[in-house]
Specification:
Elements (H helix, E strand, L loop, with lengths): L1 H13 L3 H4 L29 H5 L26 E4 L4 E4 L7
Antiparallel strand pairs: 1-2
Protein name: Protein containing DUF1501
Length: 100
Amino acid sequence: MLGAAGIMASQLDAGESTEQLGPHFPAKAKRVIHLFMNGGPYQGDLFDPKPALAKFAGTKPAGADLLTERPTGGLLPSPFKFRQCGESGLPVSELLPQLS
């Protein structure tokens, strides 16, 4: 099997690369704004209230007593309040007052 891969490697190098073919269609965009927002808020604090997490707040998760792990604290729900917003009723956190 490895011998066949070595023989076929020379044929793979001889083929056209995708870089030479160009794009599939002409680009329409003239400019791009790329936002890399490292360290943004956790989605659970914005759009996902997790009521079960609030129910078990302070309890230790199953399997948290491993000997190879540092001491694990209890479960911690989002400290922010949520309310239903828009026609869909999507829960949105108080962290986004313009959306909620």
